[in-house]
Amino acid sequence: MTTTQITIKEPIILSEIAICEKYNVTPAQLDKASRQIDMSNGAIFYQVSSQTTDEIYEVRHNGHNFTCTCKAGKVGVPCWHIRAAIASACENHQQERLSNYREMLAQEAANARYAELEAQKQAAQASIAGLKAGKNVRKSQPFSLLK
């Protein structure tokens, strides 16, 4: 059995502060965004709570740009809700990459252990076959302290 060595690259993980700086949102704004799945079509979108009212806005991506249901978003003005949703998506993708990385490491360790056990099994089978064929059998020699 031949095995191929695969190098697993550790994902680059940004801190929450770095994500906030990258997308120009505060940690409080980032916390107001949550990932949702539209059950009618499976589309992913984000709900972002208002900072000043009890309203919840929807941020969606239509394939070309982001839209938001807030007042500014309805007239095409970029808003912090969109930036918070994008920052939240970045966090979610990081968590998925980290989870996948950990799974790959666990699989790599399991594969290595399997290869180790397989090699031990083959060595044991060869030893048993040798014993059955009469090889590697020591002939008794008389005991003597004088040699």
Give structural notes.
A 4-stranded antiparallel beta sheet has the order 1-2-3-4. Strand 1 (33-37) and strand 2 form a beta hairpin. With 147 residues, the chain is an alpha+beta fold. The protein is 48% helix and 14% strand. The chain is built from 4 helices and 4 strands; from the N terminus they run ααββββαα. The model has no long low-confidence stretch (mean pLDDT 87).
In short:
With 147 residues, the protein is α+β, with helices and mostly antiparallel strands. The chain has helices at residues 16-23, 27-31, 71-74, 80-132; strands at residues 33-37, 44-49, 56-61, 66-68. The radius of gyration is 31 Å and the shape is rod-shaped.
